[in-house]
Design brief:
Helix content is 37%, strand content 19%. It contains 19 helices and 20 strands. Bound molecules: coenzyme A.
Length: 601
């Protein structure tokens, strides 16, 4: 059993939607990060605007926070439901901060641990509004755990200043009342201690913000989208930031219009992106076929949610992998990549734009609700070192003198047209010269029809075969260039491997790190690119492995099926399909079973 690292503290606030749980968590996250702690958060709430249980969780530590961990050190329960549904996650020596009066029969005295009653509602009304209950709780937390109350002032002004100065005053008063109440009524008797970090400057971003930030850094200057939970914050971020870099954000009438606008924008030379969730990606699939056929590069972010249909819009799932990879009629090549944490959201989005631009191909970035909504601290990106692919356009038509003439290029009968610019020239990488409208002598007519190297519609078998091969060559070139984009940790000779992608990979990393610290022989394999799969690297790392555990958040094992049929290995699929991410402790038993189960002869 791994020894808990008490330098990492996990605090959960739980209450009814509308009681300000999320605001309280956001403010506490800012204070923690400002104290130099590494932070990683998780929030979940019902689809309704009011009612249901809202949860905000923060895990802090002196170094990178691998995942949300398995247990709580502190539970702040705004109400009875917040207690009943979360007390089971609090460790026996954990701290409970609660609002309900002992006389309502809730067993607040627990074996071990420390309970602090704070009459949040009463103190909020004393401050001037029951809405300020969450700020009373923050004041109490600051006093209990040594956070500077003044660290909240700026955040309160930023968060509530738009409502009114009075609201700000009431909330600042509420914080003070919460802190005073603890000081005057409780003797600090708990062990839990927050550990400050190295104090290096870090930014705190949500996964959605990091994707949007990465898009702007990668040169994205056009976004078209339709709001959908849990992707909307990407559009909101770009609505604020794109105009600052002379870019445009358009809220389209639906996802079909969004992707069509992005294709048009990219066709004219603008790096373009849309963001959606599963239902929206399904609507985009036909136009993604056009982008593949016309070889127009763009980025589509799918922040997955529990589906199908409306499903559970504010809950997590990794259920769109099949749709992202195969959701097309015929062969519509697209690249699929999946960030594992908030920092990776930034860099994988830059990567996505580089691939879309260089290979003139659609790239889907697969995120999901818990990553999109979660905030985490990350080092401020070093823009000097950031590799951004600049568009390579064909130069002036004088190049045309060297381009093969039409009759040398046509494969089978051609159409009577005198094109001069071979926009789809076949080449050993499959990548053709590109121009944008307005480049004299390099005009061509883009089309969704099958076409020849001069973009002329063609229906003859030889040309069809030649162009299918061209597009496939380009896709294989991506696999060649990114084929080593596989992260492997652990014992390279291990006969048990565990693999996953996206945020599940981050939790697997936490579980495997514990297993390795306990002396287990296991390795973890994380492909960052899921289409094209990095087959060479995957086969190399799976060679000699007797058991492969695939963990993913869906109920059919979409990723496990890919690993099985591509690499012919003995796969045990560990599936979590209930709308919340894995915890490392849920994965550990499967590692232990797989190691014990293997037979040595
Ligand atoms: N004083 C004054 N106002 C306060 C406050 C305080 N102390 N604490 C919070 N508030 C305000 C917040 O500013 C927010 O107002 P806003 O909506 O104008 O921004 C509101 O109260 C809610 O507070 P917040 O902390 O953001 O959330 P919550 O913990 O109360 O939970 C939600 C409410 C987030 C669950 C709910 O509002 C929501 O958005 N539900 C999900 C909707 C959704 O995405 N559905 C999916 C559809 S497909």
């Amino acid at each position: 059993m791994h020894k808990r690292d008490t330098r990492y503290v996990c605090l959960r606030i739980a209450g009814e939607g509308g009681e300000g749980v999320i605001s309280a968590g956001e403010l506490l996250t800012q204070v923690s990060a400002r104290l130099g702690m590494h932070v990683a958060t998780f929030k979940t709430f019902p689809s309704e605007i009011r009612g249901g249980m809202a949860v905000y969780q923060i895990r802090t530590g002196p170094d990178h926070v691998l995942s949300q961990g398995d247990y709580l050190d502190i539970l702040v329960a705004f109400n009875r439901e917040g207690y009943d549904r979360n007390i089971g996650d609090l460790t026996s020596e954990g701290v409970l901060v609660h609002d309900f009066e002992p006389d309502n029969g809730v067993p607040v005295a627990r074996r071990g641990g420390t309970d602090y009653h704070v009459p949040m509602g009463t103190l909020a009304r004393e401050a001037g509004s029951h809405r300020a209950k969450n700020m009373v709780a923050l004041g109490a937390i600051c006093e209990l755990f040594g956070f500077p109350v003044e660290g909240l002032t700026e955040g309160v002004r930023l968060k509530f200043g738009k409502k009114s100065e009075k609201v700000v005053e009431i909330n600042l008063r509420a914080i003070e009342l919460g802190a005073n109440y603890v000081r005057e009524n409780h003797k600090i008797s708990h062990e839990v201690q927050f550990v400050e970090g190295d104090g290096r400057p870090r930014v705190v971003l949500s996964g959605n913000d990091a994707i949007a930030f990465g898009a702007v850094a990668a040169g994205c200057r056009f976004y078209a989208g339709y709001p959908i939970t849990p992707a909307t914050e990407i559009m909101e971020y770009l609505a604020r930031e794109l105009p600052r870099v002379n870019g445009r954000m358009v809220q389209a009438e639906d996802e079909i219009a969004s992707i069509a606008m992005c294709i048009g924008a990219s066709f004219t030379g603008q790096k373009s992106m849309s963001a959606t969730s599963g239902p929206g990606l399904a609507l985009m699939s036909e136009a993604l076929g056009l982008a593949s056929m016309a070889e127009v590069g763009l980025v589509v972010v799918d922040v997955q949610r529990a589906g199908p249909s409306t499903g559970m819009p504010t809950k997590a799932e990794q259920g769109d992998l099949n749709l992202a990879i195969y959701g097309a009629h015929s062969t519509a090549h697209r690249v699929v990549i999946a960030p594992v944490d908030v920092e990776d959201c930034f860099y994988q989005t830059v990567n996505a734009f580089n691939i879309a631009s260089k290979y003139q191909i659609p790239v889907i970035v697969l995120s999901e609700q818990s990553l999109g909504f979660s905030k985490a601290s990350m080092p401020r990106p070093d823009f000097e070192d950031l590799l951004v692919y600049e568009e390579q356009y064909a130069t002036t038509p004088t190049d045309g003198d060297t381009w093969p003439k039409v009759d040398e290029l046509t494969v089978g009968e051609g159409y009577p047209m005198t094109p001069v610019f071979p926009r789809y020239l076949r080449h050993d990488t499959g990548i053709s010269p590109r121009s944008i409208p307005g480049m004299p002598g390099m005009e061509f007519r883009a089309t969704g029809l099958e076409h020849d190297e001069f973009a002329r519609p063609r229906y003859d078998p030889p040309n069809r075969k030649a162009m299918l091969d061209k597009r496939a060559t380009k896709f294989e070139e991506v696999r060649r260039e990114y084929g080593e984009e596989v992260e492997v940790i652990g014992d390279d000779e291990a006969e048990v491997a565990i693999t996953g992608w996206g945020t599940t990979a981050a939790v697997i990393r936490h579980a495997v790190t514990r297993a390795l610290n306990d002396g287990a022989s296991v390795k973890a394999i994380f492909p960052k690119m899921l289409s094209p799969m990095p087959d060479v690297a995957m086969r190399r790392h799976l060679h000699g492995v007797k058991r492969v555990i695939c963990c993913e958040m869906n109920d059919t094992g979409q990723y496990a099926n890919i690993i099985r049929h591509r690499y012919g290995v003995n796969v045990h699929a560990v599936l979590k399909d209930r709308g919340v991410p894995f915890s490392p402790g849920e994965i550990t038993p499967y590692i232990e079973m797989a190691i014990k189960a293997q037979v040595r002869i």
